[in-house]
Amino acid sequence: MHVQISRLEAALVAGDQTAIQHTAHRMRGGCLQLSAQALAALCAQIETAAEPAASAPLIAQLRPCYHETLAALRQGEE
């Protein structure tokens, strides 16, 4: 997931909306398989954003949301 978030950040810097949408779409699918609903919803918002500038604040939320989701999933294992 860290690699995918880094890809999104790089695509944002490059202004590559197509790469942003494709990466967010793939991430959303993986998140849904893990029942990581909040992270999947954030990826869906990124995927449907009209332009990189609209994606920027959403992409900035990904790492914190990922860490929260990871912590919740780990608690569920215990």
Condensed summary:
The chain is mostly helical. The chain has helices at 2-14, 17-33, 37-48, 52-60, 62-77.
Task: Please give a structural write-up.
The chain is mainly α. It has one domain. Helix content is 86%, strand content 0%. It is built from five helices and no strands.
Q: Total helix count?
A: 5
Mean pLDDT score:
93
The radius of gyration computed from the alpha-carbon positions, rounded to a whole number of angstroms, is 12 Å
User: Pairing-aware structural class of the strands and helices?
Assistant: mainly alpha
Shape: elongated
Amino- and carboxy-terminal Cα gap = 22 Å
Measured by DSSP, the beta-strand proportion falls in: under 5%
- Along the chain, the helix and strand elements come as HHHHH
- The tally of beta strands, per DSSP, is 0
Main β-sheet, in a few words?
none
Number of domain modules:
1
Helical content stands at over 70%
Sequence stretches where pLDDT stays below 50 over 5 or more residues? none
